[in-house]
Design goal:
Elements: H1 18-28, H2 35-42, H3 46-50, H4 56-70, H5 84-101, H6 106-110, H7 117-134, H8 138-165, H9 170-200, H10 207-213
Helix pairs in contact: 1-2, 1-4, 5-8, 5-9, 7-8, 8-9
Amino acid sequence: MQSPERPAKRGRPRTITREKICEAGMQLGLPNITFVGVAAALGVSHMALYKHVANLQELKLLVAQEMFNQWQLPQASQAHHMPLKDYLVAFTQAVREFIKAHPGLTPYVIRRAAATESMIEKILSHQRHIAQAYGLGQEQSRWLVATVAFHCMAVADTVYTVASREPMTGADRAVEEKEMEEELNQGMQALIVGALAMLDAGYLPSAAALGAQS
């Protein structure tokens, strides 16, 4: 006579951490994030997820913050010190690649009201780094880096969003995207040259303008 089978033991509930939530959200991408989607990726119910994140807006902000905090901002190398213009060109290239890799992130970075304290501190820390590396005043560095980053992010976001939505074949889309990237690159170089010329001429932005762009 066979002994009755023992009921299977229930496993421990899956542990939900902010790190795992961010990882699942980043895999989905900001435009595709939903409570149901993130919960499914974590193997939990969406009601369980609500115990850790209050609403969809908070969920997206949490993921956006993690994306930005993981970004390795290019530093001004002390060993191979490059001219400020060359650094800014390299910086805009890094910004473009970052925005292209993370669709939907731009509004969380260029709008101060949408950014978290840790995101703002990372931005300010980078501005302080550039000020020290190139002997700029803090206000000069803040205006210069914020101006270049703001316009680069905004335009890059538009370029890559438009390119992804065009009803074209893959080859045609790649050609058009390359053309738009070349125009973006030329525009960023013009912006950089103009901004540096303004600094050389002694331009100092007003406190109100600095506050709006930081």
